[in-house]
Design brief:
With about 110 residues, this protein is mostly helical. The protein has one domain: Winged helix-like DNA-binding domain superfamily/Winged helix DNA-binding domain (Arc Repressor Mutant, subunit A), CATH 1.10.10.10. About 65% of the residues lie in helices and about 10% in strands. It has six helices and two strands; from the N terminus they run ααααββαα. A two-stranded antiparallel sheet has the order 1-2. The model has no long low-confidence stretch (mean pLDDT about 85).
Length: about 110
């Protein structure tokens, strides 16, 4: 059974991943289907280098996996339940605070 420290660490990693808009967009894209860096970068509207840094972060957090396919690498969520969790978070946040923005986020501070 996971310890409280393990649970807190897992939630913190998930929160850090979601806290960055680019990483959140990557997770949303991978929630729909696995993807390749070039296509993900184009779809998200960032450079491949910038995307690569974010993919490395998501791999380090244990949220995405790199799957070699010949000369290419496909990225996917490490567990399909992550896609469901993202959907649940979106539903809960939208249901609770759909018309409210985080005032501290606009000021550049951490919040929520």
């Amino acid at each position: 059974m996971p310890t409280l420290a393990t649970d807190v660490d897992a939630l913190a990693r998930f929160g850090r991943a979601l806290a960055d808009p680019i990483r959140a967009r990557v997770l949303l894209a991978l929630r729909e289907a696995p993807g390749y860096p070039a296509e993900l970068a184009e779809a998200i509207g960032v450079s491949r280098t910038r995307l690569s840094n974010h993919l490395a972060c998501l791999r380090d957090c244990g949220l995405v996996a790199a799957v070699p396919e010949g000369r290419r690498t496909r990225y996917e969520l490490t567990d399909a339940r992550l896609g469901h969790a993202i959907g649940d978070v979106l539903s809960a946040v939208i249901a609770v605070r759909h018309d409210v923005t985080c005032a501290d986020a606009a000021a550049g501070a951490d919040c929520c």
